[in-house]
Hints:
CATH architecture: Roll
Mean pLDDT: 93
Number of domains: 1
CATH topology: Thiol Ester Dehydrase, Chain A
Order of helices and strands: HEEHEEEE
Strand content: 35-45%
Helix content: 10-25%
CATH class: Alpha Beta
Radius of gyration: 15 Å
CATH superfamily: Hotdog Thioesterase
Shape: globular
Structural class: alpha+beta
Number of strands: 6
Low-confidence stretches: none
Amino acid sequence: MTERMFDLPIEINQIKQLLPHRFPFLLVDRVTTYSLEPEKVLTAVKNVTINEPFFCGHFPQDPIMPGVLILEAMAQACGLLANVALATTQDGAALYYLVKIDKARFNRPVIPGDQLVMDVTQTRLMRGLGKYDCRATVNGERTASCEILCSEG
Length: 153
């Protein structure tokens, strides 16, 4: 069994050690669960507030979180999973680049006050490329889903 390297929840200061993103582009507030065996999975949370800079211009009369930012939040959750797994074998965080998004679907809008919960599962790792199944929900209702391919930089 793999030793757990991070206590849960993983809070913002540890997230900032694992991801290079910073305000306003850091889109993960907390990691609530992760497991590295039998499969690599992670659940992360983004608290969506009206203070987000994108709400000023993205339908300001009826603000919704842009779909591309929901995808970016899921990609950041994938990077967190990769770095949490990497921490069990080496020191320091690696940089991961988004390579491809497949099968992206949006099922409901994300609005201020929502808590976006992202579940990511690593389905494949080969030659520095990781493939992930991703799902985002609000109150247990599917918001978005996709497959993400990332490359270690």
